[in-house]
Amino acid sequence: MAMTELDPRGLIRDSYRIKGISGPECRSIFLDWALGAMAGADIKAAITALLAHYGDEYPDHPMTQVLREGLAEAAPVKRRGGRKARLER
């Protein structure tokens, strides 16, 4: 898949060009990119392709770290409501 298809607005590309960009800024850009992804797109495959393209050249860049975090499995959400949550305080 071409980079223009993976990152049509150039958000990820531009984040690598910004000198001194921070992790939180990269997370914000990543979220914007993910929300703008085409419906039904395989996000994990897209992240893998972006890492293959940028990761080796920029191993210590905050966006590389954010992309790696994007591949990690999310922890299951624990329900914290009802009687039990009130008793644990």
Brief account:
The chain is built from six helices and no strands. With 89 residues, the protein is an all-alpha fold.
Helices and strands: which structural class? mainly alpha
State the helical fraction. 55-70%
| Rg (CA only) | 17 Å
Largest sheet: none
Structure characterization notes:
- By secondary structure, the protein is an all-alpha fold.
- It is 58% helix and 0% strand.
- It is elongated and about 50 Å long.
Write the layout of secondary structure elements.
Layout: H1 3-6, H2 11-17, H3 23-35, H4 43-54, H5 62-71, H6 82-87
Helix pairs in contact: 3-5, 4-5
Name the features:
89 residues, 6 helices, 58% helix, elongated
